[in-house]
Design goal:
5-stranded mixed barrel, alpha+beta, 8 helices, single chain, 43% helix
Length: 309
């Protein structure tokens, strides 16, 4: 009976556990640090990986953005330079208008018998007085041109000034297109000596859009003074006849096919002030854009922030 009770007590008593192996860490660390803290955190690992990935990606984005920032930074300087250039052009145009206005207010001068063509640019737009006989057989119809909304041509006729004097070209003025041919404007054809006042012209510089004359087809679009002189046998000197009669007679003369000369004024287009204001406005706008881009947080910092958020 005693043996049976002893066996039952031994079976019901708790069994002792085997001792744990010694820890390689100090006992204080093992007691104060939980087991989970000694393992690498998956959250920390993912954040560090995302931060590294976003760092490299944002660095590439920043490198790609450099050409754009450089372009935006150069735009204010470039447009400001164009504005300064337009201011210089404005001053040049104003001085030119004043010079031409002074020439137009001077009294007409008589052209010399022999004209030095090299001196023409110095006296361009000066009023001159010429006399001679018009050579209608070698007239040139230059155009088409417009006057007061009407389509027509300018009649350029050689003026034979007499013995020992150079023959010059005279732009007699505008005629309607139905009077292009000399036989249709007989009222303007005269063999009597004429005296007229005009403006001495210089050769205008052609550009890439200037049409080409076709003398062999008698088609003249651009006033090429040297070319017209070769075809008519005159010297390369062109005078624009000035119409000084009553303005009310212009329409009557046009209906009769009589050329009407130009007015004694010069109209030069001067839009340089508008162009300068436009370029300076663009310079200010692009400078503000560049300032905003530079004040914006960098792409690198933003990408890092998004990666660790």
């Amino acid at each position: 009976m005693f043996r049976t009770a002893l066996g039952a007590g031994l079976r019901s008593a708790p069994q002792a556990r085997a001792p744990a192996p010694p820890s390689p860490f100090p006992s204080a660390f093992a007691r104060s640090t939980p087991r989970s803290a000694r393992l690498p955190s998956p959250v920390f690992t993912s954040v560090r990986h995302a931060s590294t990935t976003s760092f490299s990606q944002s660095a590439r984005d920043k490198l790609r953005a450099r050409p754009f920032l450089l372009l935006v930074g150069l735009m204010p300087v470039f447009t400001f330079g164009l504005g300064v250039w337009q201011i210089k052009r404005l001053n040049w145009k104003v001085d030119l208008i004043h010079q031409l206005d002074d020439k137009l207010h001077q009294p007409p001068v008589r052209l010399p018998a022999r004209i030095d063509t090299a001196a023409i640019p110095e006296f361009a737009w000066r009023k001159v007085f010429v006399t001679g006989t018009l050579d209608h057989e070698h007239s040139i119809e230059l155009g088409p041109k417009t006057r007061d909304g009407q389509l027509g041509y300018h009649v350029v006729t050689p003026l034979v000034r007499g013995e020992g004097q150079d023959t010059i070209l005279v732009n007699r003025g505008f005629v309607k297109r139905e009077f292009k041919e000399a036989k249709d404007r007989l009222a303007s054809v005269t063999n009597e000596p004429v005296a007229l006042v005009g403006m001495l012209r210089d050769q205008e510089a052609p550009n890439s859009f200037t049409p080409v004359n076709q003398p062999e087809k008698d088609q003249w679009v651009f006033a090429n003074i040297a070319e017209m002189a070769r075809c008519t046998g005159a010297e390369p000197v062109l005078v624009d006849q000035i119409y000084e009669d009553h303005p009310g007679k212009v329409e009557l003369l046009l209906r009769e096919g009589i050329p009407v000369g130009r007015s004694a004024s010069i109209e030069l287009r001067n839009m340089h002030a508008t162009y300068a204001a436009t370029w300076f406005s663009l310079s200010l706008a692009t400078a503000f854009m560049f300032w905003r881009l530079m004040r914006r947080p960098s792409v690198l910092t933003t990408a890092q922030y998004r990666g660790v958020k």
